[in-house]
Amino acid sequence: MSQELLKLRELKQYFPVGKDKFVRAVDGVDLTINRGDVMGLVGESGSGKSTIAYTVMGMYRMTGGKIEFGGESFTRESRLHRSMQFRRDVQIVFQDPGSSLNPYQDVRSILSLPLKVHRVVPPNRIDDKILEILRMVELPPEFMYKSPNSIGGGEKQLVSIARALCCSPRFIILDEPTSSLDVSIQAKIINMLIKLHKEQKLTYMFITHDMGVMRNVSNRVAIMYLGKICEIAPTETFYAKPLHPYTQMLLSAIPVVSDEDEALKPRKVECVGEIPSPVNIPAGCSFNTRCPFKTDRCMRDDPRMKEIEPGHVVRCHLFDEGHGKA
Ligand SMILES: Nc1ncnc2c1ncn2[C@@H]1O[C@H](COP(=O)(O)OP(=O)(O)OP(=O)(O)O)[C@@H](O)[C@H]1O
Ligand SMILES: [Mg+2]
């Protein structure tokens, strides 16, 4: 059985904004997620993380490229079509459980819908199955009859996670699952997600702004900047040996409390310049307006992804052959 579960090939998602103008929200993304991975997808606001998630789910018709999942593949010609198998296997948990759960339904109705649509159990077993799923996310049985309006933010997110688990999925996209929650309950939700990953043999795409969370949760990391991935690495390598100037910039901006942690940080890379508008992405390397190491070539040619070590790829001219390493 192949190790690869989700493969994005040259994925593009452009949004029209006015005459002949496009936001290139996702602009040629290559990413492979293996079975059992927790792939952290990190990047500033507007870098295209959610757009990747929504395009994979079939919420947008992709502009170009290919999505492969478990033997199926989807292109622009597939439009929004996703097979029933894909709809069972691939689930998403959104950032804000408040707006993703219908406030007029109780938890029982919310969870019974996917169970009915996908005929997960016979109709007379639905309540038993709901109780089983609530147990998985450690919510008490009486939650069945509660409405999302009457429960807290963390509990709502647990209900969203329970809904994602209804069809025994293989892959879950978590789009900033804790960033709308109170800090005190973020850790509880993260721990629950880690537990479920192990127990249910899941694979995650974990979208986050929070480098600390990402370090605790993911085994691999992909960094996005203006619709493109600039570096992918195993989490440990990523912290020990970040290569792309943007990655170094992100890591050197994390506040630390001890001198030991400070000593472990990569060299300080100061951000220069401004973030370009996603409608007007600069020619050459899109990071060139902010990169302290840019050369003429960076203003002209868009770098390609290069594998520096097994599993560690970077998209930066500093790592081209013949160029002195950064
Ligand atoms: N439906 C849309 N129509 C037009 N532009 C869009 C649409 N959805 C997203 N965009 C634009 O695409 C870019 C990427 O947005 P996206 O929401 O994917 O970023 P993100 O990395 O998820 O950001 P955040 O961290 O704030 O959630 C942004 O410039 C955004 O304004
Ligand atoms: Mg987003």
Please render the helix and strand layout as text.
Blueprint: E1 4-16, E2 22-34, E3 38-43, H1 49-57, E4 64-69, E5 72-74, H2 84-89, E6 90-93, H3 97-100, H4 107-117, H5 126-136, H6 153-165, E7 171-175, H7 183-199, E8 203-208, H8 211-217, E9 220-225, E10 228-234, H9 235-240, H10 245-252, H11 259-264, H12 296-300, E11 306-309, E12 312-314
Parallel strand pairs: 3-8, 3-9, 6-7, 7-8
Antiparallel strand pairs: 1-2, 1-4, 4-5, 9-10, 10-12, 11-12
The chain binds adenosine-5'-triphosphate (ATP) and magnesium ion.
Adenosine-5'-triphosphate is lined by residues 15, 17, 23, 25, 43, 45-51, 278.
Fold and architecture overview:
The chain is of the alpha/beta class. It has a domain of 88 residues. The protein is built from twelve helices and twelve strands. The strands form two sheets. It has an eight-stranded mixed beta sheet, with helices on both faces. The chain has a four-stranded antiparallel beta sheet with strand order 2-1-4-5, with helices on one face. Strand 4 and strand 5 form a beta hairpin. The longest helix is centred in the middle third of the chain and has 17 residues. The radius of gyration is 21 Å and the shape is globular. The protein binds adenosine-5'-triphosphate and magnesium ion.
